[in-house]
Amino acid sequence: MFEALSDRLESAWKTLRGQDKISESNIQDALREVRRALLEADVNLQVVKDFIEEVRESALGAEVITGVQPDQQFIKIVHDQLVEIMGATNEPLAESNKPPTVILMAGLQGTGKTTATAKLALHLRKQEQTSLLVATDIYRPAAIDQLVTLGEQIDVPVFQLGTDANPVEIARQGLAAAREQNVDTVIVDTAGRLQIDPEMMSELADIKKAIKPDETLLVVDAMTGQEAANLTQTFHDQIGITGAILTKMDGDTRGGAALSIRQISGKPIKFVGVGEKVEALQPFYPDRMASRILG
Ligand code: GDP
């Protein structure tokens, strides 16, 4: 599907072979190939530039390890740098020491936010944790129905007050219900728009203020590509996120959005969505993602 980085670097290696130190002049070509690979993987341009600089610094002057091909060593440097940026290990969901743990879902419409809400509840159920889902998207009645249907499918209750109530009030009452019912986690699904708009942001900020979530997860469609960077910046600046879920990774994408999200917000991607079904959620593993981005 994509050209592997090791193949692309084939000609660049010719300048590296036989050297005992990786120097500026002999990694130019290699860095150019890494840059091309990242851009093809849809990593944001600025993020790519920053990354290339970091790789250049790590690679320059690195002694070529005896017995290791300099090209292999370079690939390892690039790979390790990617993993380091994306977080060395998978970071689990935050857990409140005073249940319920409150999770706020944020993101644009169509990214898979409602689906991810149900996926998380199923993930928690498999760990014998109870959840309550809260439907605050009053602008699209179908969104409430969708959450209710998903809730029935996974046998997790859904709190809703229809489309006439105020979203902040629904979130507040949903949290109160979760406390009363002693559930472990309450997951609040919110309205998304096709594009970021001030009204959406201020409503989200109000909901956040009202329920003080332990996690605010930005749901990002992996196909968003370059735009993932702006999206993350805006949500993080205006709402403050604690992590992200990258959806639709089952599609034809190398997942460069993952690198952009992490580099821009400094927050971990906690899960990836790999299909439309409620079971299609996996923990995010930085090393696997690094290999996928590099091809
Ligand atoms: P929302 O508007 O953000 O709440 O998005 P939805 O949860 O309604 O999802 C929008 C569409 O994307 C639906 O058709 C979902 O089935 C689909 N979807 C959600 N997550 C994934 C995923 O990880 N992979 C694929 N292929 N489709 C997904």
TrEMBL record:
GO terms for cellular component: signal recognition particle. GO terms for molecular function: 7S RNA binding; GTP binding; GTPase activity. Its EC number is 3.6.5.4. GO terms for biological process: SRP-dependent cotranslational protein targeting to membrane. GTP binds at residues 107-114, 189-193, 247-250. The keyword Lyase does not apply. Composed of three domains: the N-terminal N domain, which is responsible for interactions with the ribosome, the central G domain, which binds GTP, and the C-terminal M domain, which binds the RNA and the signal sequence of the RNC. Involved in targeting and insertion of nascent membrane proteins into the cytoplasmic membrane. Binds to the hydrophobic signal sequence of the ribosome-nascent chain (RNC) as it emerges from the ribosomes. The SRP-RNC complex is then targeted to the cytoplasmic membrane where it interacts with the SRP receptor FtsY. This is Signal recognition particle protein. It comes from Acaryochloris marina (strain MBIC 11017). The gene is ffh.
